[in-house]
Write a structure and sequence with these properties.
With about 850 residues, the protein is of the alpha/beta class.
């Protein structure tokens, strides 16, 4: 289109950078706007794209029915590009739509109609939707969706502080106000919050804080499947942890104080909303958020400054994002230098067998003075610890976890204050909950058919769950099933394989403790099922079968080497109500990383560990885990007993196998399907650095020559999650493929003359039987930066590992060749580390596990010791 002199009603300013795959959908959503063509101009600024984004923009400008202006500049960030666009915008209203997002066809029509009806309004906020690219559909699940009910409306931020608009991309602003104030995006605020910073500064220009909330103008935020959006990439950008806080959050605080003398609640709610994403991202089991050590002190200094501006009463009234009770306490008191303790304690669990109750309360600062009375009698905790709520490497909030005697009347005194004992952590205040519910119901009044359909569907689902669950419960109580499984111990490893701590413990129970009613569960038809079934293994149950369900509903203990959700709380029993069994985590290996984000979501009655350092990292004071020494027992892994005997049975001359056994990578596998433990390898695996690096080891001429001179063999044993990759590999003829499924893995460890791994806990297995190790860690930055499951824990490979650590191929080749030439014995330095890690290797791990289970099954007064 050619330019005209008439000013349009709307200007869309969009900053474009390397969005070629997404531009067609964005352009189509703009072209589909149902407004006159003279009412819209688009100012597109290409910010130095390296793909064909600029070509697509130029083509759009030639063919569009609207006025499209295209500019290009060297890359300098989104704020810089938007500012250039603002310099050339001429519309009455301006919005800053991101070029990977989309807007509904009525977006501008609704905005124009509302602006006509409310001429005094100067900022309009559209309703956000999430568009999940990999699923090709949008969801009305954005946290801010409730602000927009029940209809298009005007909200005053002083009256409704939770109605803040936080994004420039989904909002429209009167351009006259922007130009009169010379308002532009602060280019220092990057890679995030530039939108919120601009929005707050605009609002601070207004005399009356009225905002138009447009329920019927829909903005679609694209959730990229590749995780490459500006927001998604920002998680590893240092600016997110420095500039965004200093020039963004703290700047709006200073501006608010200059105008109002305080930080008004609506700005506090915006800050709470922003900080909740920091907290939520770091709480993920696997997060790409990363704060480099050199900027971590500055980040926490700035974070404390922002939190210090929040008033506790405002935090408790936040209704946009659902805040956990931990977040509420942290955002209210986590930055304070004044010692604080919670106004209440909470009973979080009851162990009626042991006669104990778990009581928690939170505090900041020094450990409080505490005393307890139960039913009028002074009581001491049977077990106690202080858990750290750790975010980005710093302990921002502490929590006491105490196991007190069970009783009706509990008196808790903390620093001289008697605090009440609640049955659960507090939720929203009743008034706010009712307000939220009333607003939701008022929205449904306009949609009676939808309301009736949803109510009927919800009722049918509840009835189906009730009938199915009750039928299973009734069946489980009948004499045949109850007589067979009541009080049983149900043991397993993974759903689809065995040969781990579960199978080893089950073998011990059948051989040495036949008095215990034990069964073993595994998926029918799996390789280990066929092996166990052919071997005449008694008491074998097919996982998922009706007999297995009856066993689960009657057993006293479920003991497994894995604590994944399909094992811990099987979906096949979701309709039968709360679990009646106790769960014992036998572990898959020695924990060396921080797995607290995953395991803290489990109620573990037994947590098996193997070393003193592992025990301290889980049950010790200051550890981020919720478990005390009540649950956590240093017994050693059940498979260590057989491993020790098997390893000692193989003399040194017969230790002739070099095992290359890398662990898996979360970014190379697809998400687990519901109820499954099988991971599918992603297509990116084929061309990944991971496979190139390990194939280089397997194809190394120097390593092959050293192994041949020694007369050894080279075997490749990828992690069970990657066992489906064999058909994608072109292994050299001298490499033996080693599989976990259907294989006696411990016999392979016994033959091992050298283990080559990266981060795998397999190294603890081979070290347990005094075999040397080499670590090849070519992608340490990604693994320790949060890209994989878990976080860096207490174990430092250079300090605690059982062999040398190589960061590149050349160093790895040298270390492996030297280890092969030296033979199947660790050097004195690494042997000393092994002996310090495992001072007791006596073949009694299974017996200790059984003793721990039996002790936890009796009243505490009857336990030995």
């Amino acid at each position: 289109m050619t330019d005209t002199a008439a000013a349009p009603r709307f200007s869309i300013v969009t900053a474009v950078y390397d969005v070629e795959p997404y531009l067609p959908a964005f352009i189509a959503s703009i072209e589909g706007q149902r407004i006159p063509r003279e009412d819209l101009e688009i100012v597109a600024v290409d910010d130095g794209s390296s793909d064909r984004s600029l070509d697509l923009l130029m083509d759009w400008a030639r063919r569009s029915r609207f006025r499209v202006k295209v500019f290009t500049k060297p890359n300098a960030g989104q704020g810089s590009a938007r500012n250039l666009g603002l310099d050339h915008a001429t519309g009455e209203w301006v919005t800053f739509t991101d070029p990977d997002d989309m807007i509904h066809r009525d977006f501008l029509r609704v905005a124009g109609g509302f602006a006509d009806a409310h001429p005094a309004i100067e900022v309009l906020a559209s309703k956000p939707f999430l568009f999940f690219e990999d699923q090709r559909h949008r969801l009305d699940t954005h946290p801010r969706k409730r602000q927009y009910e029940p209809a298009n409306r005007v909200a005053n931020l002083d009256d409704e502080p939770n109605a803040f608009p936080g994004s420039a991309s989904g909002s429209l602003y009167r351009r006259e106000r922007i130009e009169a104030a010379g308002l532009r995006f602060d280019e220092r605020v990057r890679p995030n919050f530039e939108d919120g910073h601009f929005a707050v500064r605009f609002l601070l220009l207004l005399q009356h804080l009225d905002v138009g909330l447009l329920r019927d103008a829909h903005y679609l935020y694209r959730k990229r499947a590749a995780g490459t959006s500006t927001l998604q990439r920002s998680l590893r950008d240092p600016g997110r942890y420095t500039n965004a806080l200093e020039f963004g959050y703290l700047d709006v605080v200073a501006r608010a104080r200059d105008r109002f003398g305080r930080v008004p609640p609506w700005i506090q709610h915006l800050l709470i909303y922003e900080l909740s994403w920091y907290l939520g991202e770091d709480e993920k089991i696997s997060s790409t958020a990363y704060v480099a050590p050199e900027i971590a002190p500055r980040f926490h200094e700035l974070l404390a400054a922002v939190i210090g501006e929040l008033e506790p009463e405002v935090v408790t009234e936040h209704r946009v994002r659902r805040l956990s009770s931990v977040w509420v306490d942290l955002l209210s008191h986590g930055a304070s230098e004044i010692p604080w303790h919670g106004p209440h304690a909470v009973r979080t669990r009851v162990d009626r067998v042991a006669g104990l109750q778990r009581v928690n309360y939170r505090f900041v600062g020094r450990p409080p003075d505490e005393s307890f009375e139960v039913d009028g009698v002074v009581a001491e905790p049977a077990y106690a610890k202080t858990m750290a709520h750790r975010y980005y490497g710093a302990d921002l909030l502490l929590e006491r976890i105490l196991w007190l005697p069970l009783g009706r009347a509990v008196r808790i005194s903390v620093d001289g204050d008697v605090i009440p004992l609640l049955g659960r952590w507090p939720r929203l205040p009743n008034r706010a909950r009712w307000r939220t519910r009333r607003r939701r119901l008022s929205a449904y009044r306009h949609r009676p058919v939808e309301r009736a359909a949803r109510s009927a569907s919800r009722l049918l689902r509840r009835l189906r769950r009730l009938v199915t669950g009750r039928a299973l419960r009734l069946a489980a109580r009948t004499p045949p099933w109850r007589g067979r499984f009541r009080g049983a111990w149900l043991v397993m490893d993974r759903i689809h394989d065995a040969d781990d701590n579960g199978e080893r413990l089950f073998e011990y129970l059948r051989a040495d403790r036949p008095d215990i009613n034990a069964f073993f569960a595994i998926e029918r038809g799996s390789p280990d099922w066929r092996r166990l079934d052919a071997g005449g293994k008694e008491r074998l149950l097919a996982h998922g079968s009706f007999a297995w369900r009856m066993a689960m509903l009657n057993c006293a203990w479920l003991l497994s080497s894995h604590a994944d959700a399909p094992i811990y709380r099987p979906p096949q029993l979701a309709r039968t109500g709360p679990a009646t069994w106790r769960f014992g985590f036998l572990q898959h290996g020695v924990i060396k990383d921080d797995l607290s984000r995953w395991l803290n979501h489990r109620e573990l009655d037994l947590f098996v560990v193997s070393t003193d350092a592992e025990l301290a990292s889980i049950a010790g004071d200051g550890a981020p885990y919720r478990f005390t020494t009540r649950e956590t027992h240093r017994t050693g892994l059940p498979r260590f007993d057989r491993l020790l005997a098997t390893g000692r049975a193989v003399p040194e001359p017969d230790r002739d196998l070099v095992i290359v056994a890398p662990t898996w990578r979360q970014w190379l596998t697809l998400p687990l399907a519901s109820g499954s433990q099988r991971r599918i390898v992603d297509a990116a695996f084929r061309d990944s650095e991971y496979i190139r690096s390990w194939l280089a080891i397997l194809r190394s001429p120097s390593i092959a020559a050293a192994i041949e001179r020694r007369g050894w063999q080279l075997g490749f044993m990828p992690h069970p999650n990657l066992q489906g990759i064999w058909d994608q590999l072109d292994l050299p003829a001298n490499v033996v493929p080693l599989s976990f499924a259907g294989t006696d893995v411990q016999s392979l460890y016994a033959r091992c003359g050298l283990l080559v791994t990266d981060y795998s806990s397999v190294a603890f297995n081979t070290a347990y039987i005094d075999r040397p190790v080499v670590y090849f860690q070519f992608d340490a930055a990604a693994m320790f930066g949060g890209a994989h499951v878990g976080r860096r824990g207490y174990f430092e490979y250079e300090r605690d590992g059982f062999g040398p650590v190589a960061a590149d191929l050349e160093a790895a080749e040298r270390a492996i060749v030297a280890a092969v030439e030296r033979g199947a014995t660790p050097t004195p330095e690494y042997q000393a580390r092994i002996d310090a890690t495992f001072p007791v290797r006596d073949g009694g791990a299974c017996a200790r596990v059984v003793a721990a289970v039996e002790a936890l099954s009796r009243p505490r007064a009857e336990r030995p010791g």
